[in-house]
Amino acid sequence: MKIKNYTLCLLTLGISSVSVAQSGNKIAQRGGVIPAVTHHDNPTRGAVIFSEDFASGIPGTWDNTTVSGPVDWKYTTVGHTGDYPTQSLLSSTSSNGWILVDSDADNFSGGGAEDARLTTPFIDCSSYSNVKIEFQQMFRRWQQDITTVRVSVDSGYTWVDYEINQGVTQSGTDNPDYVNIDISADIASNPDSVLIQFWWQGAWDYGWQIDDFAVKELDPNDILIKKTSLSEDVTYYKVPESQVQPLSFSAFAENVGYNDQTLVQLYVDVDDGSGSVFINSSSALPLLSPGTSDSLSVGAVFTPTAVGLYDVTLNVDQSETDDVTANNEALLNFEVTDTVYAIDNGVYGGQWWDLDDGSGSSNAFEIGAVYEVVTDEWASSSSVFIGDNSDAGVAFELNIYEYNAGTQTYDLITTTDTYAVTSGDLGNWVTMRFVNDVELTAGTDYLVTLVHYGGPEALYVGYGTNSSFRGSTLTYDYDQGAWSNQPRTPMIRLNLGEVGLSVDENEVELSVYPNPTTGIVNIDIPSSELESVKLFDLSGKLVKQTKLSRLDISNLSEGTYFLEIISSKGITNKTITKE
Predict the structure, then answer these.
(1) What residues have CB less than 8 Å from 540, skipping those under 6 apart?
(2) Which of 248, 330, 341, 405 is the most buried (most CB within 10 A)?
(3) Which domain of life is it from (predicted)?
(4) Facing residues of 516 across strands?
(5) Total domain count for the chain?
(6) pLDDT digit string (tens) for 243-294?
């Protein structure tokens, strides 16, 4: 879906300097000897030489050194905990924890330069001629933060540095982002004494999250799919039937093996629940060299024609037989709705607020998302997810603006009444009706925002795990008097048609009990009204589906889940906890 390039008055970000000494690709460092631990597997293709998923924290055999500053590498099960948190890492084994540098929480504006280094024990790679590092990460850039992966074969006296994430902005990497580094040439001189180091440098930035680290034999033929998309720019995950636009599918293919890969293609299959409704593929890349990536786009577009949930399977393939097929496929989904327009993907990624550093209270702020209208329609209300760190009693309003092509600004159309958050709203959706219904004009973009006027009470807004196209999610800082791009995707939705007050997504208020639960979840709804019940985990994966008002989740892991209840009267979303 297309969105115009708007001229915004962006905030000027203060840049703190971090002094680092770099010389080309190698940096000399002297330090103590780390105890050796040998991990040796049989020399078979694709063998795992060394791995760590941090299920028990940072192992004692690793060297965790903070050279300067107040931050260090540490174990977490929740992610960043500062006032401007990045979404938690959704790695393959995130349920047992991961590691991070939490610069936002552990430092402060004007704080000291940060230099934190986490080093493996010695790793014996002598049985393998082709070796790579792989791990999963989540990273967002704030200012001059530097993320480096280092390799040494002489006890840390000299290092080969791989600075990664140079091109990453505040929008962040994929979550998770899969990193693969071929270190074969770097360790050839002494492969039985390999050290790997994660090196963080910053100064009150966001931080760096890492999990599922491994040193592995490099496979001959291995391509990886990443950066999947349903659109050329803005992706809306819930689209009213009246606003459906053609979808275009794309992804990047990365060659993480050591052989050239030929005739690499992207294949797409869209399923509406009853079967495939769209199958197509991209043109083939003639050649994808080792260590490189390239984009693939399906030329044909797909326009959904019915209300419902659509599952999209994207798969990359090549002429060669892939040695690791598990990383060739990605799954996405979107929904065509009666009334709900959502830019967030429905998966809770965290909560945001605007901290006043001077007083510890909240600054006045406005945060919102842009919605593109392609058919004349009416808007009646907006829904926002209130973060559970908010204070009961904190007040806010919801606004809707129309884009003025002549002035290249957004003009306020109408607002809601002021609303005071209740304790029952925390961690839930709140829907508010606009004072006047808004007539939406085809070909025009509308900015829907939440505005909080500051004060001692904090208001947190939930955001999704997806990143948005620059210019489609915005923040207004009243102290600075300017709009800026918002890298998170706020859970602020636009409801078209008739939607009742304090009802999420045109939904009927339903009771779900017990909550928390150890196994059985009951939904208080007449069976004649119930159409379907879907249960999603934190990653957005559908884990249960039924048409009954009683759901058994005793076989699921403990944690938080999202329940979507579709009835003849609308849609209800609930958050439930399995204990």
Answers:
(1) 333, 345, 346, 347, 465
(2) 341
(3) Bacteria
(4) none
(5) 4
(6) 999 999 999 999 999 999 999 999 999 999 999 999 999 999 999 999 899 9
